[in-house]
Design brief:
The complex is a heterotrimer of chains A (343), B (463) and C (174).
Chain A lengths: L1 H15 L6 H19 L11 E5 L7 E2 L2 E4 L5 E7 L4 E5 L7 E3 L4 E6 L5 E7 L11 E6 L13 H5 L19 H10 L4 H4 L1 H6 L2 H7 L7 H14 L3 H14 L1 H4 L10 H7 L19 H5 L3 H10 L15 H12 L6
Parallel strand pairs in A: 1-4, 3-9
Antiparallel strand pairs in A: 1-2, 4-7, 5-6, 5-8, 8-9
Chain B lengths: L1 E4 L4 H8 L1 H24 L8 H22 L2 H5 L4 H8 L13 H8 L8 H4 L12 H12 L1 H6 L1 H21 L4 H6 L1 H9 L5 E5 L2 H6 L4 H4 L27 H5 L5 E6 L12 H22 L3 H8 L4 H26 L8 H9 L2 H20 L1 H8 L24 H27 L4 H18 L1
Antiparallel strand pairs in B: 1-3, 2-3
Helix pairs in contact in B: 2-3, 2-10, 3-20, 3-21, 5-10, 8-12, 8-16, 16-18, 16-19, 16-20, 16-23, 17-18, 18-19, 18-23, 20-22, 20-23, 22-23
Chain C lengths: L2 H9 L1 H20 L12 E9 L2 E3 L2 E4 L4 E8 L4 E5 L4 E5 L5 E6 L4 E6 L12 E6 L3 H19 L12 H6 L1
Parallel strand pairs in C: 1-4, 3-9
Antiparallel strand pairs in C: 1-2, 4-7, 5-6, 5-8, 8-9
Helix pairs in contact in C: 1-2, 2-3
The chains are: A alpha+beta (343), B mainly alpha (463), C alpha+beta (174).
Chain lengths: 343, 463, 174
């Protein structure tokens, strides 16, 4: 036993410093350790201070925007760097004249923002990234964090006290698509329509109400519808319709369909998903059809503006009020009527 | 046919026996390996912009299957970093051989044999690998396991990192409990097929003179000596007839006192003249063939549902895919070959013919993988430049190539190249089948029919 | 020439060389011969709507004749997808709700993969479809070459049974 201990002692003493005499081994160990330290130090670079704020984007049900609240100061440039962790996204700021930033997976895009007045802005994804794309929103707080919210003009539907969710079918539907051109010819030769042509009148009346109001005139049914179309057309312009079309294509067509038939690429998914995305109680199963004459002829521009501004309240329809400017929404409304009128 | 011994030249011999070149390569690769794991955690989750995915599954895989295996056999194993931490622990040393006190456990254990002194527990801790598992069935299993999840592993940096970390841990744990490189020899999912296909390579490690080995005292190439270690792969070089189990670690070249170990250039596929005799290796050749066909169908085919089911792991659809994948590799392909073997009215037993003719699937399978990988590489190669410049997807631009977009290469030439490799593989296998038939004294036609059928299917899958 | 003579001739050196010349030249012919003109009628115009969602095209396999004028309308139905056509080197991308079209003349014969060219998620690199113009030439060339090489090797083989000469002729005779 004692012999064993004696034998192990020298062996152990060598073991403590087995390579001290071997400079090659020391270099080898240093080499490996250096490599390990270099590799393991890489993550530290992630925590170095950066000039820009890094914003990650991913589909809404994964994590959406990260961060989803950004603070900025008035008059101080805000540097942002974007990347996507899954699919193509885009960064846009609601109600601001700002061309959206494309965000590609695994790549980075930079932008600098400068705000000249305090306020709360909404930033949102500008490229469809799934049926929950519109849930991808964040808040930009500029300046004072608890500002008294400026008394913005109330949307028309609130001042008028309209019930946006009530059905509004038109009792009468024209046999053919009313043509604005035919209507304008009739209007050119007639008088006494000035009241009808005004913006305020147009906005709070449905096409059916105008058509109905013309029932004591000399015009035939189809002529009356054409006059209505002409009135609607006179409240917009080619440029405004073009803007409306652009907004519709980018933001609405994925659900409501290119021609407004409610048959966009997500309509089947939304229908399959049912509640809570779509409002079962009101029998809403699919995105609304915007080329259905009955519901559109029965809807005043104020109702359509209200629906776009407020959104579907629990259905899949997003709230656009914080994204689009008032003008943009009116142009969108004007464009929607082009599905049922010939402009 | 041996053409030349490349380590006859003193300078080459010096380069190969010096531990530094190999050690530096291994250490750098270990760092790269750890970085690959790390990039799964800290890099972008977008696979095509993550170092882990781009360098493992595009760069490393293409180099392995298109260059390393066909030309250098187990050349990759010779520099693979995975077994290093365990081996360093076993040896208590990174480089060279410790002085007397630090001799390898193996040589100490050898010394202990015959002496009355019982070896201390520390010395017996490295057990021999259990006898029932001294085959490549576990490697067949580990490869199939990776294959089952490959659509996820190939595309997710996180999952790739987990798999790599598991391999590193498993290799390390194995080296604590078992002697030598038991992980490489019996567990590693990659080692199994590299070993199988290394028989094709024009590089081999063999002894020069058998008599020198017979008379050699102590057999340091197996048992180790004061200058080096015994074969980490547990192989006695004098018995080497095939490349399969030789890891080209060059340890025997270093310790052989008579400079009797030669690294030879030879004709391709010399080893294949000796047919396979083991069922585990025979099955490996079917698994590799079946996996190449499965990948070609799932990853390169136009069938979206197949891709989705293979990706949605543990769903009922995936279960069906898993059963089909395992069934193809373990039952359908071997079963087809076996029933074709039964067509032989006389001659060797179907089992013997089965294993022997599995040999011809080695060049065929290698060419299947070549055809698959060519297309995979051509469509994804442009990610390499992007990832080199921005390995973690953090927005770096180290060498200015981060902004290069995705662009496939090869255009019109990839398909003819793929067809050429598949048809070439078929011709190679056919010739080999005829050689096998002469040895087995049976008809090669059933095996040739098998090769022709699978090649026609593979041609359909990739064109 | 009776079968025995034929067999002897094939076994002879000249016969073997001739056989190989025959096999190699037919191989070259199969690999490189220009395709016969399959276009029976005037070029047609195709309008093909392809829906793209993770990670598949619908339809994923298209077939047109050489010279046809093809318009592909790509409609993404979940996220932004693209379509890149191999060899033709053409690309198009579509956002959901906004279709995009690509019009070209199918002037290259064969089967080509088309694949998504904008990262759309995990399996993006494997989002693949197949576009065939005329015949899938490399499939048929490949199949013919495969069969040719097997028969070529068998024909040039003396036999595989010990002490027994054998070649493809005797298989045919049986």
């Amino acid at each position: 036993m004692a012999d064993n201990v004696n034998q192990q002692t020298p062996s152990n003493s060598v073991r403590i410093q087995p390579w001290s005499h071997d400079w090659q081994e020391i270099i080898a160990r240093l080499f490996v350790m250096t490599l390990l330290i270099v590799v393991l130090a890489v993550p530290i670079l992630k925590f170095l201070p950066k000039e820009s704020l890094e914003v990650h984007s991913s589909q809404a049900l994964t994590s959406g925007w990260d961060p989803d609240v950004i603070h900025a100061e008035v008059g101080q440039p805000l540097h942002l760097r974007f990347t996507s962790d899954d699919v193509v996204h885009g960064f846009g700021i609601g109600q601001m004249d700002f061309s959206p930033v494309e965000i590609l997976p695994g790549e980075w895009t930079e932008t600098t923002l400068l705000f000249d007045k305090p306020g709360i802005y909404t930033y949102y994804c500008t490229r469809w990234c799934g049926k929950d794309h519109w849930r991808m929103r964040g808040t930009l707080e500029v300046g004072e964090t608890n500002p008294v919210s400026p008394p913005a003009d109330l949307p028309l539907y609130l001042t008028l006290g309209l019930d946006l969710d009530a059905p509004h079918p038109s009792p009468v539907i024209p046999a053919n698509k009313p043509s604005a051109a035919t209507g304008s010819e009739l209007l050119a030769t007639a008088s006494g329509f000035n009241e009808y042509l005004s913006k305020d009148y147009y906005r709070i009346h449905s096409p059916f109400e105008v058509y109905d109001g013309l029932r004591d005139t000399v015009y035939s049914d189809s002529e009356r519808w054409s006059i209505v179309a002409a009135i609607w057309r006179s409240n917009t312009s080619s440029e405004k319709l073009a803007e409306g079309k652009g907004l519709f294509t980018e933001n609405c067509a994925a659900c409501h369909g290119k021609n407004g038939a409610g048959d966009g690429v997500f309509s089947d998914d939304l229908e399959a998903q049912g509640s809570p995305a779509m409002d079962d109680q009101h029998g809403i199963k699919k995105p609304a059809s915007l080329n259905d004459p009955s519901s559109i002829l029965g809807a005043s521009p104020a109702i359509l503006q209200g629906k776009i501004t407020r959104g579907g309240m629990g259905t899949g329809m997003p709230m656009w009020g914080v994204i689009f400017t008032e003008d943009q929404i009116w142009n969108l409304v004007a464009y929607i009527y082009s599905f049922i009128f010939i402009y | 046919m041996t053409l030349t011994s490349i380590n006859n030249h003193p300078l080459v011999n010096k380069l190969l026996t010096n531990r530094w070149p190999q050690f530096i390569l291994q250490a750098l690769l270990l760092a790269a390996f750890l970085f690959t794991i790390l990039s799964g955690w800290i890099g972008t989750p977008v696979g095509s912009h993550n170092f882990g995915i781009v360098f493992l599954w595009i760069t490393w895989w293409a180099l392995l299957i298109l260059v390393a295996v066909p030309f250098f056999g187990r050349g990759w194993c010779s520099i693979c970093p995975i077994p290093l931490p365990g081996e360093w622990l076993q040896r208590g040393n990174l480089l060279g051989k410790k002085s007397e006190a630090g001799r390898s456990q193996v040589s100490k254990a050898i010394d202990g044999i015959g002496s009355s002194e019982a070896p201390s527990p520390q010395e017996t801790i490295h057990r021999r690998w259990p006898r029932v598992f001294r085959n490549i069935w576990l490697q067949n299993g580990s490869f199939l396991l990776l294959g089952l999840f490959s659509p996820i592993i190939l595309t997710s940096p996180q999952v790739t990192a987990v798999v790599l970390a598991l391999m590193l841990v498993l290799a390390f744990a194995t080296s604590i409990f078992f002697e030598r490189r038991s992980f490489c020899r019996y567990l590693c999912p990659v080692s199994g097929f590299i070993g199988l296909y290394s028989q094709v390579s024009p590089l081999e490690l063999r002894i020069r003179n058998k008599q020198d080995c017979v008379t050699c005292l102590g057999k340091p190439c197996y048992n180790g000596s004061t200058t080096g270690y015994g074969c980490p792969w547990g192989v006695f070089p004098a018995g080497l007839q095939k490349n399969t189990n030789c890891g080209l670690c060059l340890e025997c070249v270093r310790v052989c006192p008579k400079n009797n170990i030669s690294i030879n250039l030879r004709s391709f596929a010399t080893d294949l003249e000796r047919p396979l005799t083991r069922m585990d290796e025979a099955y490996k050749s079917f698994i590799m063939l079946g996996s190449a066909m499965t990948y070609a169908a799932v990853l390169l085919g136009p069938w979206g549902a197949l891709k989705l089911h293979s990706y949605a792991v543990f769903t009922p659809g995936w279960m069906v895919y898993a059963v089909a994948f395992l069934g193809l590799n373990l039952a359908i392909l071997p079963g087809l070959m076996f029933s074709l073997m039964k067509l032989n009215p006389k001659g060797a037993s179907p089992r013997a013919s089965f294993t022997a003719f599995s040999t011809i699937l080695i060049p065929l399978g290698l060419m299947f993988w070549l055809a698959f990988s060519l297309s995979f590489l051509a469509s994804n190669v442009s990610y390499i430049g992007i990832s080199l410049s921005d390995p973690l997807g953090w927005g770096w631009n180290l060498i200015g190539t981060a902004g290069l977009g995705w662009r496939p290469i090869g255009g019109f030439f990839i398909q003819p190249l793929q067809v050429l490799s598949l048809v070439g593989g078929l011709g190679w296998s056919t010739q080999l089948a005829i050689k096998m038939a002469k040895v087995q004294n049976v008809s090669p036609l059933p095996a040739i029919i098998f090769c022709l059928l699978t090649t026609l299917i593979m041609l359909w899958l990739i064109t | 020439m009776n079968p025995t003579n034929l067999r002897n001739f094939i076994a002879s050196r000249t016969g073997k060389q001739l056989a190989w010349i025959l096999i190699i030249s037919s191989g070259l012919l199969i690999a490189f011969a220009p395709l016969p003109d399959f276009s029976r009628s005037a070029p047609q115009t195709h309008f093909i709507r392809i829906e793209a969602n993770k990670f598949a095209y619908q339809p994923a396999q298209l077939h047109v004749n050489p010279g046809d004028i093809v318009t592909i309308e790509l409609a993404s139905t979940d996220v932004v997808h693209g379509l890149y056509l191999d060899s033709y080197d053409l690309a198009v991308q579509s956002d959901p709700g906004q279709t995009a079209t690509l019009t070209f003349i199918a002037d290259k014969t064969g089967s080509f993969r088309f694949r998504c060219n904008i990262t759309c998620g995990a399996l993006h690199p494997f989002m693949i479809g197949k576009f065939t113009v005329g015949v899938n030439q490399w499939l048929y060339r490949g199949w013919s070459l495969a069969i040719l090489i097997v028969f070529g090797i068998l024909a040039s083989t003396h036999g595989w049974r010990r002490n027994n000469t054998f070649n493809i002729i005797s298989i045919v005779q049986k």
